[in-house]
Amino acid sequence: MSTAKAIAKPIVSRLASDGLSRERAREYACEPMGDEATDSPDGAAAAPEGIDRSGVEAWFSRHVPGVELPLAFERIAGGHSNLTYRVTDAAGRRWALRRPPLGKRLGSAHDMAREHRVVSALGPTGVPVAPVVGLCEDDSVNGAPFYAMEFVEGPILRGLAEAEAFPGEGDRRAIGERVADTLVAIHAVDPDAVGLGELGRKEDYVARQLRRWQGQWEKSKTRELAAIDAVHERLAARIPAQGPATIVHGDYRLDNMILTPAGEVAAVVDWELCTLGDPLADVGLLMVYWPDRGEDGEQPVALGQPANLAPGFPSRAELRDRYAERSGRDLAELDFFVALGYWKLAIILEGVYARYKAGGYGKADSGVEYFARLVERLAEAAETAERRG
Fold it and tell me: Under CATH, what is the fold of the domain 31-77+82-150?
């Protein structure tokens, strides 16, 4: 599973209304697919693509006490990233099943085992995650590895419309504070103590990120952008000293959380990019995803209309200060990591733009040029943040 695609998928979905057709955006949005099911000869609803009914039902019968067959399956998320299905038994109990993308087999077994390992390890900690049921690495069961967990019900605040689930400004402020507090909890987990000490290399996280994404830029760029190269050179020349490595979520933001009806954090999701490294990388990327209301100078880009733009949510500075206070970490170098976040997103979306131009997502319309402008604006925002630091 491509790191770039995993991050790009929700961004493209959020930005679709700003220039891309609904049909093309749906590749990323992946709406629930239960209405596409047809009846099978035995009267049960046919399983969606990516699910072998007999194999998965047999696995559930062996590994989930009290499950009542038949099972119903509905694909609720996915596309180019790992896929998620809602599984419901005859008694109405529900689980979530995660598997690799369809037709994407290279490294898939490792991805599922890795994600299962992370979520399982975090279960007993103070980090809210979905309780894990089990992992299946036998391809003969479902054509690819998968793991199952308890289904966590609750709102996900992907944009301004979803923020209306919490109309009170006090509730919104509390949710924003919990975003910071939960990230503090993730970074407070000792990787060695929970069995994740070998999840990835602990040292030189930023240097490795800079090498990786500059290489990606060279492979995918459709034009020269001086800002991309300039930011890379300046960041590489002044990498901050890294403290003890922590768990790094890799794509931490408000819409990777499931909330309770009261606005508590029920579960942090999408751990497929999790590794070990510098915790400030998560904080910097969170700042990128958390634009301030009315910003039109320092950050010329808001990635769509995120929920935190609704009145009541903490400002970016308040979110930063909350994290600093609760974690005790020195954020003097945070602008470096904000620049790194903008720079990385610019490179990821250049890859999306290149694939659209090459016809990788079907015939491109005029709206695809929005991505070209967006890449330029992200690169400029990276330059601004780097100079400020």
Answer: Phosphorylase Kinase; domain 1 (3.30.200)
